[in-house]
Each structure stands twice: as structure tokens, then as C-alpha cells.
Amino acid sequence: MKYAFLLLILAMTASAELSVCGTEELLPIGFTEEELTRLHEIGVNTVPTAPPPDGTVNPAEWDPATGVFIRWPLGLPYELIVAFSQETTVWVICEESQQGSVESAFTSAGVNMSNVDYFFATTNSIWVRDYGPWFVLLEDGTQGIFDYVYNRPRPDDDQIPVEVGAAWGIPVYISDIVHTGGNYMSSGFGQAMSTNLVYDENGGNEDWVDSQMEIYLGITDYVTMDDPLSYVTIDHIDCWAKMLSPDRVLVLQLPPSHPSYAALETAADLLAGTQSPYGGDWEVIRVASSGSEGYTNSLICNDHVYIPLFGSSLDAAALDVYDTAMPGYTIEGFEHSGWLPDDALHCRTRNVMDSEMLFIRHVPVADEQPADIPVTVDARITCHPSNALTGHSVHYRTGMSGSFTELGMTSTGSDSFTADIPGVIGGQTVQYYIAAADDSGRNESLPRFAPDTWFFQYQTSATGVAHGGPAAHGIDIGSAGPNPFRGSVSIPYTASSATAASVTVWDIAGRVVHRETAELEGGIGSVYWMPDEDVPPGLYLIRLDGPEWSATQRVTLIR
Q: What percent of the chain is predicted at pLDDT more than 90?
């Protein structure tokens, strides 16, 4: 792959920042003038490998983590390291000769040293977000690492993922795609987001980039857009957006007088009109910024959210936005003189994902359900092969308060589980979440940390027919057949008039495997899905979304 760079966009020189310990003049997050003369060095030592097996998942930032990578000398306030060390393992990337300096500085600052560990390596810079390892969950429940060409001529940084894999015994899968961690957000459900920088740096070859993301990371829905911030030169998506869950994304909101206001509103509208892995559109939450505060450059690590503060009058409001958007999470803010609008806390940290992750994936049921009819909840639940599942259940309640009733989920094979929530009378709200446990002592729920965070929920129709169902809009949807099926499956319909419907197919892990727009003619017809040969057997959800209705059916593909 030929690497192409837009120098006028990416070139950035800045006044030097000293490390917190005062021992190093830190490289900027962009290029130095000297580095602009060495762009030809980027990727010269990269040797691509075969991709991981099919079924690979790139977890989201909020998925289970066991630690946080940072780099010494630091570009982070000691108060943040103290906070990390109270909750998780702080992995310090440094040279072995620097360990004594780290221990002395951390001990003086009050860091919990029992939660500090070291990864000895030589680095060029502090931007572990951009060059650090991207952890993936392989189909068998074990862990892998995705490596790519780091988009800076910093060879020591670029080797860190390979060195981590070698030291920790984790297979590393290498692509020659040029990328950077700050320009990437994963939903954990096969959908990810970046700015178009990723295309610009790879010769504008969008199809090739998308294919690399799919075969190495399992990304089947790669959402990209122009960077909207004229005052940011690195074009990283974490400078203005932050996924908070598989259906909620935080976006900066600039004052209308700001030169980037219109472009940022366009980007926010684009996200609000993009389908999330949960089936509906992304819920876009806004956080106010004058342009000097990069509040989206935060880190989610398990049930804590660490947010950069800028000594601004907007700081308190930003914390309130996170607190409202992420109930049940501990929200903490950290001020630091080194934070910039396009470079703050997220840029300088990276989660170490749990190598024995207990993993739950589920596509929520439709928002409206018929009354008095059981509602089927399907999920994929996997654990590390050295562990065994000891529990898998749905917890539900009728109404917005009160205790939850537990239902055991039945295995349907291939890590798939199902349970039926009993039907309830019309006009009710039903809330539910999924929980699982394994014999390693891990316990997880989806949504994560439920019931202390949020829930899935649906309403039952007072008439016995869901108001958002097709029948209310002149569409009669029949049962999919044949089911199970081999080559293709059809969903018959009768429509009172012609209409269009989007057709989306998810696997049991919530990954989109097919999407198209179907024209439903008036009268009798069918919608067909013919899976590609590389689509594995298993349970799939087919959802038809019309202008004011939706319908979901379960089908089983056999080979």
C-alpha cells in the first residue's frame, strides 16, 4: 500500500511541552518540522501477517479492562495516576533503567504502588493512544492484538504492539494500513468510526481500507466523515466525539459564532442519522466547548470515566453532562496545564483489555411489542476457553422501579442463549438486562454494570398490536421461510401500497452482516436474504424498517 499524507493538514509544530517530571522535552502529537523530512520512513519495517480467524471482535473502550497503559516520562498529572491506581493496574511503558525514577515519583505522589506494573521498552513519545496495541477478541474467546502502520516516523513507538504481543504471549495480526488510535472508536458490535484521515493516509483507497478493517478487526460498518474542526490539525475523531455506549455518542458543541460551528453541526446531524448497532439511530449528546476545551478526549475504564478539565467556566457543566449521560459510572475530572483542545487525557492513555473477557452481545428487542405475548431475548455469551460459564440469565421487571425477576437463558448452541420474557398487559413498560458469570469469578451484565446503570426496555401496545408494527401502516409481514434455511430465506409481505424498507441482518453477537434498501411493491411480495458463502451457520435477526414501522424475525442458517 502506498502511503499518502496531506502535509498541509497534518503538519503541526508546537511549543515544546516538558514531561511532568521535567526530564524530557516531549514530541508533539503532530509532526515536528524534522519529521516532515522523514515521512518516507513510515511503514518501511512493517511486514503484514495473515488476518485473524473469522469472528474476531474489536471490543469497545467500555468493555472489561484490567489496566491502563501510560508512558514514562509522563505527560499526565500525578493526580490522574493516583486515581488510576485505586481502581486498576497502571502499566508504565518505560526503559528498565527508568524504573527507579518512576517508583520514586509515584511514591511521593501517593500512587498505590501495589497496582503499578512495568512494560520495559524504548519509546519516542507519550502518545500511547495512537501507537499502542488494539486488543481483539478472537472467535475462540482468546485475545489477539491488531497492529498497523503508525502514522508518524517514530519507529520505537511503532514497535510497541509487536513487543507487547511477544512479551505477553498474544498473537499479533499486522496490516499495512496506516492508522492512529486517536482517530478510531469501536462500538464493540462491528461498527466503528473515524474521520476521513484514514482514507487520506492510505491513498484514498476506501474499499481497501474498509476491507482491512473488516478482515483484521471484524468491522463490517465503518462510519467515516470529514473532520469538522478547522482549528485542529491532526483530524482525530476523539478531538470532538466520544462513544459512551453502543447507541450513545458525545459530541462537542461550539458557539454559533465559532468558525467550525456549522461543520460540527453537520457532523453531529450525520451521526444522529446513522444507525447504531442497537438498530435505532445514534443518540447524540452534546457538551459545550468554546473551542479551547476538548471534553470528549476522556477515558472510560470499567465503571470510571476520567475527563480532562481546562480551568474553564465550562468544566462543571461538562462533568454534569457525563454524569447525566452515564448513570452508575464514577465521573472524575482532572485539570492539567498540558491539555490542549486536540490533545488531552484520551490521547495519552490506552486500556489493557481483559485477556479472559466474559463477553455478552445482544441486539435489543424492538421498542414496541404486542401485549400478552412473550418477548424472546437472544444473546451471545462467551468466556475464555480456560473458564466455564456458570450463569446466564435475563432479569426483567414491569414498570420503571422495583425488583427484577430472573429468568434462566437456554443454550441454543454456538455460544447462543435465549429466554422468553412473559407477556404483559398493554400499556406497560418492561425493562430488562442480561447477566452472566463464569468459574473464574467474573460477572458481567449487558448493558454493562446494570442494574446500576441503564436498561433495555420496550413498551407493550394497549391494543395488542405494537403501534410501530407494520400492520398499523398497511403492511402485513409473514413468517420467514424456509426456517432453518440453507441458500436463501424469504420474508413474505402484503402491502397496501408501494413503500421502501431498510433490511438489516445481525448475527447473534450484534454484528451487522448485511444491509440493503428494499422496494416493497404494492400487493404481495417477498424480501430475500441470500448470505454469502463465508457467512457462518447460526442464528440471525432480520429487521425491516419502514418509514413508520419495523419488524424483526429470527432465522437459522445451516450449512
A: 81
For 383-470, where are the E strands, in sequence order?
389-398, 405-408, 410-413, 416-421, 429-438, 443-446, 456-460
Q: What is the DSSP track for 32-94?
A: -TTGGG-GGGTTTT----PPPPTT-B---TTS-EEEEEEESS-SS-HHHHHHHHHHSEEEEEE
The secondary element (H helix, E strand) that includes residue 362 is: none
Per-residue pLDDT tens over the stretch 59-93: 999 999 999 999 999 999 999 999 999 999 999 99
The answer to whether the pTM exceeds 0.90 is no
Q: Could you state, in order of their start, the residue ranges of all structural domains in the chain? A: 7-353, 359-460, 470-557
Q: Which CATH number fits domain 470-557: 3.40.1180.10, 2.60.40.150, 3.10.450.50, 2.40.110.10?
A: 2.60.40.150
CATH superfamily of 7-353: L-arginine/glycine Amidinotransferase; Chain A (3.75.10.10)
| Domain spanning 359-460: CATH 3.20.20.80 | no
Contacts of residue 222, defined as CB under 8 A and 6 or more positions apart, other chains included, come to 191, 192, 193, 194, 209, 210, 213, 214
Position 549 scores a pLDDT of 81
